[in-house]
Specification:
By secondary structure, the protein is of the alpha/beta class. The chain contains 13 helices and 14 strands. Strand 3 and strand 4 form a beta hairpin. The radius of gyration is 22 Å and the shape is globular.
Length: 392
Amino acid sequence: MLCEQRERESMKVLVISGGIPEEKSPLAGIFAFDQARALMEEGIEVIYFVVDLRSFRHKRKWGIKHFKKDGIQCGQISIPLGGLPLSVRCKAGARALETLFRSFPGFSPDIIHAHFHDVGYMAAHLAERFKIPLVITEHSSVLSTQEIKRAEKRYVIEAYRKADRVVAVSSALAANIKKHTGSDCSIVPNIVDTSLFQFSEERPRNECNIVTVGNLLPIKNQEFLLDAFQLFHKKYPHSHLSIVGDGVLRAQLQDRANFLGLEGDVSFLGQLSRQEISEVFQRCHLFAFTSVSETFGVACIEALASGLPVVTTDCGGPKDFIDDKNGIIVKGDTCNDFADALCRAYENYERYNRKEISGTIRTAFSPVEIAAQLTELYSLTIDKSKYLEKRK
């Protein structure tokens, strides 16, 4: 055990993402940075790189900058390439990443961990040049679609081919990656912030507060939820729906709520911080999730960690952690089907052991647990890479 701890503490990991959480964009790179922070807290030396290729519209200082965030040494290179073809962004990003890497003389990572296939393609160039093992974690919903654009698929396959290991955040995403690219995946899920999302007995009585969280985009399917909630509300008029998130469909969804006669029964709360979302959860009874396709569903595990049973569409990622003990996966695809599931969850609300739901999720998706899974995966990848190098 002591040897394992020493090995872990001496490991150097370079994490690479396309973003980092900031005040203006709190969700940028959030899953990658969560993992980087968890690794650091377990004694691993981590440097976090950002390859920011967003367009001119995102105002920031171009070029390279070094800084620290939450105790992690970070490097960022910003080049405004947002509107250019993927081929240009990937190749220019690969060169930019090498330039950023060379601005950290003396840093020799044992492994590179890139997040998303486009960043993985850029990182593959770096890994190949400096002979460093490469892990790519995929989060992109692009891989959950029926078809991938030919231009993008080329870079996905090339990135995975050059990686020593490909990781998916759910078994559903792993199956889609296998179907589209032929690559086998390890599975390491996302992290739940156990310092924020916790069980509480406090809930308003004699009412039913339902909450959903997600960007207001077609893939999140909130109009479907409004239609289902109207049916639920007819049966339980003391109910209320809170919609957390913002996006291009906000005005359309507000109009839909008004058309359905739900003006006072639906609240649009906008984009909230994780702290604010955790506070909303403490006032709610059920979490509703109507996504068309989901690679993981981090909002679902945050709700479960807060003790909220989850009612979700059969959208992929949540199938790994939703069962009869903590919620319902709705197999039907009509508003009536979803409304009926909400009714069943509410009518059986007292049967859910909400404290147990919270505890199970907080253990399975804690920073400590995910850091342990990543560390084991890194060790296996490094050992395999050394073995293959000796065989050459």
